[in-house]
Amino acid sequence: MSMLTLNQLVARSIVDPAIVQAFSAGRxxxxxxxxxxxxxxxxxxxxxxxxxxxxxxVLAYRTVKAAQPVQTRIELPSPAEGLIRRDExxxxxxxxx
Length: 97
What we know:
By secondary structure, the protein is mainly alpha-helical. The protein is about 50% helix and about 0% strand. The chain has helices spanning about 1-15, 15-25, 30, 40-45, 55-65. Helix 1 (about 1-15) crosses helix 2 (about 15-25). The longest helix has 15 residues, at about 55-65.
């Protein structure tokens, strides 16, 4: 959810100059409080040091990306696994699906 929220913030900054103005004035924490970031991520984003809004957005992306839980890939068996002959002893024996 944090990455979606960050995307909303950046998109909103394009149409709403108050976002960039709040950043320039050092009040980005006020803007972040209205968004659905977790308290830990909000604290990290509030403490980022950047000269420009673009630099802040890049640093915010890295921060949010690092805070996201790692998703493990699902390991599925190969479709050919049932087609490979495993044991010559099994030839001719009945198999149940």
